[in-house]
Amino acid sequence: MRRAKPIVAAFLLLGALVAAAPAQAVTVGLADQLGASFQDPRLTELPVRHARLSVAWDAMLYRWQREEIDEWMRGTQDAGIRALVTFGRSRTRPFSLPKPATYRRHVARFMRRYPAVREYSPWNEPNLAVQPRNSDPRRIAAYYRMLRRLCRTCTLLGADVVDNSRLASWMRAYLHAFRGTRPPQLWGLHNYVDVNSSSSWGTTTMLRLAPGKLWFTETGAIVARKKPSSGPPDRRRLIRTGRRRAPRATRRVFRLAAKSRRIERVYIYHWRAGGVSSWDSALVTEKGTLRPSFKVFAREARRGAER
What we know:
16% strand; single chain; TIM Barrel; disordered N terminus; two-stranded antiparallel ribbon; 11 strands
């Protein structure tokens, strides 16, 4: 028994050290829609070299959208940041999925205008759409194939999905659309529910269903959001918000990322809070003050750069 005590103590110490060990480092980026964000030295002085932009599939039709994207591209390029672009619903017409040929024409025009972009995702949050015509997995799969034909050397995500209650059923239907062919081997997940609750179902489900690598292409601690409208039950109602919760939720992002070595990147959304917005998960207040969650973001960005 005397000999056993040091052995037990050693095992207890080892367990404590494992529990205290930091989570595996991941590459940290920023998901943000404003080009001005990449002019802030508090961001550009960090080793953040990846940024994500969500673009309407028909953005090239409109001068004002082209100008917004131009500013964003200049800002990221000047800061030495690599762009990931996700296409999604139109900002000017009722939401419906374009025909594949129409999608191809507009995306090809985008690629010609911004040849430096080499990372793409075909559609943003398709499993969030309620109407079947707006979330058709076969149509999104056609978009993926169109992107691959347009840029065979680009890095392509299968889709950017959100961790709502429809995640598993939509992913199964989407993977079925690739039956007989090789499915995508890289995926984007917006795991706001997991980050801002005590659940990890969305992240675990994607790791179980999606082959290959996984990026958190949009995530973060939600400080405030518009109250969800009434509708069918959905796990998004698990989300809890608030300034005090934000640092803890931001740390949770990286604990979730440590679940698997298949999770390689994390894009935190977004940089600075806006005056009139239904969503606030920013690292900086509207007045320009850094929030406590920024320290977590900065620390993890430095850890990721040291990998």
